[in-house]
Amino acid sequence: MLRIEGLSAGYSAKPVLNDVSIRVDAGQFVAIVGPNGAGKTTLFKTISGILQPNGGRIMFGDADLLAVPPAQRPHLGIAHVPEGRQVFPSLTVMENLEMGALTESGRRDWKQNIERIFEWLPVLAERRAQFAGTLSGGQQQMLAIGRGLASSPKLLMLDEPSMGLAPSTADFIFDRLIDIRRQSGLTMLLVEQRVAEALESADHGYVLEAGRVVLEGSNEALRADDRVRKAYLGM
Questions:
Q1: Does domain 1-77+154-235 have CATH number 3.40.462.10?
Q2: For 164-177, b where at least 16 C-beta lie within 10 A, e where not — what string?
Q3: Whose CA is closest to 158, among 172, 144, 175?
C-alpha cells in the first residue's frame, strides 16, 4: 500500500531524514519508534505533503504521492492524526468529526462511519455537543482519531497518540486502536515514543535514529533484539 524508498527530507540544507525506506502492506499495523529528534514527525509531514522531500520516492498504491498535491492526498485515503491532537477547540465534537468527513468517501460513508466511531469511542457520542476545547487531553486524542476515521481512510497515520497523556489514558488509547484495527482491518502506521506498547501492538516495526532506519522486523524480533531491549525497553 505505502512504499517509501530512499527518502531524504528536512527543514534546511541539512536533512532530517536520510535515505529512509519503509513499506506498509494493506491491513498491516506498522510502528516507527525512536528517540526525540529521530525524524519520525518529519516523515509523517513528508507523507502528508506538509514538507517537500529533497530526494526519494513515495508510492501509495499505484499513485506517485510526490506528484499529488497535499490537499488531494486525503482523497486518496490517507488520514493523518497529527502530533498534539490539533482539534478545532471552538467547534463541537460533532463539528470536528464532520470536518474529517470532507473527503468524497467520508461524505459517502458518513452515516456508517459515525455509527462506528461512536461505537468504538463512546465518549464522543456522550459529548457530541461539547466544544472540543473543553475536553480532557485523552478525549481530545480520541476526537482526533475519530476525525481521521471519519474520512474513510485506507491508511490511518497516528503521530505520537500517547503524547502528554497519563499512562492509564495512553493504555486505553492503545487498546482502542487495537480494537479498531481488529474490527475494521484498517491499515495503520504509528509513530510513538512508548516503544514497548507500540511494538506489542504492531505487526512490523522500524527503529529510526538520527534520521535513518537502523533496525526493522516483526514485533517479536525487535522486542527480542538486544539493542532495542537495552536502549528502549529498559532491559
A1: no
A2: ebeeebbeebbebb
A3: 144
Question: Rounded distance, CA 206 to CA 2, Å?
Answer: 14
Pairing between β-strand 78-81 and β-strand 155-159 as defined by DSSP bridges: parallel
Annotated domain spans of the chain = 1-77+154-235, 83-152
Q: Which residues contact 98 (CB under 8 A, 6 or more apart)?
A: 150
223 membership: H or E segment, kind and range: helix 219-224
Q: Could you read off the pLDDT of 89-118 as tens digits, one per residue? A: 999 999 999 999 999 999 999 999 999 999
* Helix, strand or coil, per DSSP, at residue 195: helix
- At residue 12, φ and ψ (nearest 5 deg) are -155, -160
Using the predicted structure, report yes or no on whether residue 204 has a pLDDT greater than 90: yes
Q: How many CB atoms are located within 10 Å of the residue 230 CB? A: 10
Between CA 88 and CA 91 the distance in angstroms is 6
Contact 154, 143 (CB under 8 A): no
